[in-house]
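Subject: sequence -> structure tokens, single chain

Hey, anyone have a minute? Need the predicted structure for the following. Not urgent.
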Amino acid sequence: MSNESDFYVGYLPMPGGLKKAIRRLVLALAFMVVALAAILIAGQNPFAASDFEFQQYREFSGTLLTEPYPAIAIPGQGLPWLLVGPRKHTAGDFRKLNGRVVKLKGERIMRGEDHMIELLPGSLTAAGQGDSFPFSESLGEMQLTGEIVDSKCFFGVMNPGAGKVHRDCAARCISGGIPPAFLVRDSSGKTVTLLLAHWKRELLDHIAEPVTIRGHLVRTAGRLTLYQE
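Reply:
Had a minute. Here:
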């Protein structure tokens, strides 16, 4: 008595045993694909809690700071809010209004304590003399290692806004006038955001990779800025 196995000929009906085998194989492959996708998703780092209030324009009032980059110090709202323009452009040159109280409209960009306002062009107006100017404190000469990012995307416009996947975008943003930021870790391992002043164009080649920069560290209204040598 011969032991016959299912044999499939393309123009004949498929044998029942072969149908069952193929069905099991397809189900097994589908399960493996779903499981692999779940493993890959679980292994990804979660996105940072950030927000860009696109086209949600608010009114703001505070003291305008123009060094090293435009910002507005709003009473009771922590660090000064950096000011940027639409897309990959600077907010503008407001040095004549430095220290003045101004009013403006814009969209908030927020990531933890780091925040900025995308200024609605033409909305910034002087509203009076500043009552007090934020105190600046020198923290001395520092040599720090970290990652250069563009502050606008990192603060919330893009997610992720750092790393090699964001390198080209960051280079274009910084070239367009977006304030460059420097991500470093403090003694407890927490990531701290510094602004980079006295920007050097050659640093564009070192975005999204570890880089060591030496300079003078200054704190103004709580905001840390590294003035490069």
